[in-house]
Each structure stands twice: as structure tokens, then as C-alpha cells.
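Reopening this ticket.

The earlier resolution said the output was attached, but the attachment link was broken on my side. Pasting everything inline this time so it's all in one place.
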Amino acid sequence: MMAKCSCIQHSFPIGTIVGMPYNDPMTTRTSDVLILGGGVIGLASAYYLLQAGRSVTVLEQNGVGSGSSHGNCGTLTPSHAMPLATPGVIGDGLRWLFKADAPLRIKPTLDPALVRWLFGFVGRCNWKDFEHALRVKAPLLVRSRALIEELVQREQLDCEFAALGTLSVYRDAASFVHACALNERVAAVGIAAETLDGAATLAREPALKPGVAGALFYPGDAQLRPDRYVAELARSVRAKGGEIVEGACVQGIVRDAARIAKVATSAGDFAGREIVLALGAWTPRLAAQIGLRVPIQPGKGYSITYTRPARSPRIPMTLKERSVCVTAWGSGFRLGSTMEFAGYDATLNRTRLDALRRGAAEYLHEPEGPSVTEEWYGWRPMTPDDLPVIGRARGTDNLVLATGHGMLGVTLSAVTGLLVSEVIAGKPSCDLAPFAAERFT
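Inline output:
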């Protein structure tokens, strides 16, 4: 049976900032740290805060991991350190502007927030900003990849983790040559790759059809099943004494001078000595309530999950010319990716799903499994410079931001959680200035 889209119709009522102290402690549930958002970033933050001895409550408007944490391809990819704002990407975008199934699609709109975001993105499509983003993102990705493996082993997370590396596969010779030249910049920041010609690529991965020009193999990458990783993080958080409240839709924020005093939700009122905002693509809507400008746009991605085909890939891969990610686990097989800027459009676009199937069919002997188990979309929290927002928020003494992770939320989950715990302790282990929200002002 064709699976329905797993995404729940999101609602996010905009509450009113009340410039007064709350004075009803008997009906307000209070913890050391209140985390808004039960996706992979919020749960990883809860885990490390609990490890540091804090009491933690996580609020999630739907179910844990029901957003972009759920249906992505589950690859852990320091190899994806290059920012989306790459010189030349604007030319691709213009060519794809009226192509409904293009890997990158921007829906024509007059939305002023998206227009501002696009201007910010275009302004960063130069080599200086490219190199800056690459230098600051690469070590964060490498560190998080190692932390996730440690976390999986320490907590025995049942999430099909496997340190298999990843392949970036090319069928067009010119594209492969260009990618190899560009990859020298990635190698310069310490992310190793093995260059394979067509024959070596087919020998490494027999699931690929003949006609491959070559591939880049990244041995430091890995994979896991993201929905199970999130579920296991939630299990671990609860086991350590953390509280997770699902179905808690934020309805209002109450301030007491320079602090957030209370968060009113559909599940009651909550307070924390510290508040962590980990709402992913929903961040701008709440941030606006407290006077913060965080330029995040929802970048809509899609995936199709199948039962495993007989000739399933051994190594997770990206089919580069079609921007299709392919991941196989013992429990299933997934095609995913694409990027669509269409606001919070809550429709399952059949054209985008069909593009995944067609793209995979160009490269793989068996591009689909025997049966579909899920068709999915989710909104990634995209910043103009493709760097996350991590650190304290200016103007609100007890607010910490952990958002804007783009397509790399799963990969960056552990290091973000650790950094959130360090920020709250007042001892961050790295310079967070490149990730401050103030960089956009």
C-alpha cells in the first residue's frame, strides 16, 4: 500500500509577549532547562544537559522527531562541509527556475522574508565567504561525527549505525573533474577523500550501472537510521530523568525584563532557568515574538522509503548530477534529498518524488525496493550562509539558540548538544562567534 506522508500538519499559534513577571508558580512546571523543540537538536541538547547534571524538560508540538529529523537519509557527512552558497550555484538556480523537478527549486513568490533571505544567500556566493564557511563548519562536523559514534556505543542506541563512508557518484566526466578540483578545498580542511575512476567505482559499489565517470569516497562518513536515532535519544533522555512533553504547542511567551519568565503552551505553562530554542524551521515564528531576527527559511526536502531491493547498495551515496541521496539499512532503503523553497507549503509534491525515482534509475540497477513504506517531506532550517545558529541570544539573558542546521541537523546533533550544555555552564569549548545570530544584523 502506498504510504501516506508522515508529516503532521503543523500549527504554531503566535502568542503575545507580555511585559510582566509571571507570579503563578503553583501552576507552572519549572526545570533547570526548558528546551523548545523535540527534534534531533533538542533531544541531543537534553542528553548532554542531563549528563551535566541539569534537570530538563523538552516541549514538542507534535511527536518527538516528527519534523526534518524523521525522513532524511541519515548520513553523517563531514564530507558535506562545503556550503550551499557556492560560486556558480546561482547559474544553476536560474537554469532550473521554471523546472518543477529540478534539484533546487525556488517557488516564485513575493514573500519579503524569502526575498531578503535570497539576497543574503546570493551575496555569499563568492570564494571568500565559501572558504570562511568551509573552515568553520568542517571541524564542527568532524567533531560531531566522532561524538555520535561515542554516544551510540555508550548508550547502546539501536539505530543501525554503520561507519561505511559515503560515495559521491558522477556520470558526467566534466562534472567529475570539476568536483575533484573543488574537493581539494575540502581536503585542505582535513576531510580526506579517495578518488575513484569509473571502473574502481563499479568495483567498490556493484549496485551502480555501467557508465559512471568516477566517484569520491569519503571514509570518515557514516550512516544511521534517523527516526530510530531520534527515538533512541528520546529513550535515553527519559531514562536519565528528562521530561518530554509531546503535543505542547507554544501559544505565548511571558517576559520579566530581560528574561523569559514563562512559556504558555497547549499542554500548560512551563518555565526554565535557561531556555533553549531548538525549533528548526519554525524558529523565525517564535523568535519574532521576542524581538529576534533569525533569517531561517524552510528548505523542503523529500524522501521515499522502501523495503530493501535484492541488489541494494553497500555504501550510502549521493548521485550528484541528480542530487539524490541513497541509503540502505537492514530495515529498509531510502531515496531522498532535493531542495524546494516554497514557504511552509504542506503538500506532498508528486513531481518532486518522481524526480527522486527517475534520478536513481539513471544510476542504479535496482533504484526502488519491492514496496513503498513511506513517502515523506520535511522542512530543513536553512540560513543564508549555511552555518547553524548556536549560542546565547542578545537581549534575552536566559535564552540559548540551537537552530539553523540546514541539511546537516543529524550530523551536527551531538556537537550542538554538547555546545549547548557548555554555553549554559559558561564554558564553551570553541569560539561560537561564527555561529552567533548577530552575524546577520
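Reporter confirms the inline version is readable. The longest helix spans residues 127-155. The CA atoms of residues 118 and 369 lie 37 Å apart.
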